[in-house]
Amino acid sequence: MTTRMAAAAAAGVLLVAVALAGVARGEDPYVFFEWKVTYGTKTLLDAPQKVILINGEFPGPRINCSSNNNIVVNVFNELDEPLLFTWNGMQHRKNSWQDGLAGTQCPIAPGTNYTYKWQPKDQIGSFFYFPSLRMHRAAGGYGGISVVSRLLIPVPFDPPADDHMVLIGDWYTKDHAAMAKMLDAGKSFGRPQGVVINGKSGKDAADPPMFTVEAGKTYRFRVCNAGIKASLNFRIQGHDMKLVEMEGSHTLQDMYDSLDVHVGHCFSVLVDADQKPGDYYMVASTRFIHEAKTVSAVIRYAGSSTPPSPNVPEPPAGWAWSINQWRSFRWNLTASAARPNPQGSYHYGQINITRTIKLMVSRGHIDGKLKYGFNGVSHVDADTPLKLAEYFNVTDGVFRYNQMTDVPPAVNGPLHVIPNVITAEFRTFIEVIFENPEKSMDSVHLDGYAFFAVGMGPGKWTAEERKTYNLLDAVSRHSVQVYPRSWTAIMLTFDNAGMWNVRSNIWERHYLGEQLYISVVSPARSLRDEYNMPENALRCGKVVGLPLPPSYLPA
């Protein structure tokens, strides 16, 4: 046995011991995963592609768990470059240490391993994970996360016959490292070459059938757009879809013949197998870009030998249809989510706004190279993760707080390329406005929280737009689209202490600086509000060799 294997085995014994100790203390159940992350070759879009595999699979293993389970993922990095995973939509209550981004965690070096431990605390729903450094996300390495309600917590629909994860996304035939080099050189990598569904494209997606159903039964499909640029329209030939959940919230159960799924977003739908037995296409098509791309997989009724009709339904046109569909989404106020109390018992529309942050997308060139940002600041990662620098009180020379203002600059000037960190007062209720002056779609995500997307519309936002807000039943979620030359408004309470990333889900924009971090510090410095740095946390940059700071106070 090699030294490394022995260390891994010892770590496994330690984790089992931790789990047994947790059971003895009455902790929530533990769910264990061990991932070997490698490169591999897979045929996509009729060409061999270099992809990131987890245990030889793409997509990676699905994480199935219940609310409050302790998720333990031991990641072995067999790539030739540093690696991190982020858990899109997991709020990591009190625990931004596990968020898996360059601003919160030192990377896992090649040939080493790191063990994540996190909880979907008071969460249910459909999510996904992906590798977060550089352009790894363009090479795969992603997989689904499904969190079901605990026993005795009512769910507003009957248990389905089966529960399927459907990961759709655009795909580029360029190598992810070549894509990063293009961006580093100030060039865009253009439009995607195609679309994949559960890691398959073309004929491979349609034969053999991806899913088999039995006539008369109802099935749940959790659909996530894990791509990097294109919004996708999702539909199932000959079948309507009942929307029941969106990124951790139960929704009003309206019927749709197709759904726009923007980058980073997840929906759950129930589909009745109520059509004439046969094969039917499940289709995902790009939206809002020229030269639309489509992928089709097959759903087969058990025992069928009837091929699908070649008449595949076309996607809708334009973004007016899409924004009207968004307006139809409503929070199910009477349904419980992860807790027994109804979702609607939280009256977000009656809380006073203490601060408004208006974030306008900035785009410019520095030394001839394309950059993106917010309010004139283009984020760049520091050598020392921001969270570690803050925790060890060594921020000097790493970053400065609040270099970006709460409103866009009155005059467009040159972009400032710095680590972009702003502060938010603990437990304050804040309104955030995103403005996208670009001609292309944007999709934004906030780690550590769910927010209420209360409004969106064309043009520039003004205070008058508040009259159009949905202050009753906007869906609580973690990602939202911002249409071209339009605005989107969200509201939330910053009650989760930590260092949290706000980012564009459009990975080219993210890579080029359209992101920032929000530092939320509890003045009590109590373990009630935030965990200490984990004992196994990796160290790098300025915190190597430093003594640990004093522990947060007991809860």
TrEMBL record:
Lineage top rank: taxon: Eukaryota
| UniProt entry keywords in alphabetical sequence | Signal
Domain Plastocyanin-like, residue spans:
37-149, 163-303, 383-523
Identify the SUPFAM superfamilies for this entry.
Cupredoxins (SSF49503)
GO terms for molecular function, please? copper ion binding; oxidoreductase activity
| Cleavable signal peptide | 1-26
Name the InterPro entries on file.
Answer: Cu-oxidase-like_N (IPR011707), Cu-oxidase_2nd (IPR001117), Cu-oxidase_C (IPR011706), Cu-oxidase_fam (IPR045087), Cupredoxin (IPR008972)
Question: Which family is this protein grouped under?
Answer: Belongs to the multicopper oxidase family.
Entries under PANTHER family matching the protein:
MULTI-COPPER OXIDASE, OS05G0485800 PROTEIN
Q: What is this protein called?
A: L-ascorbate oxidase
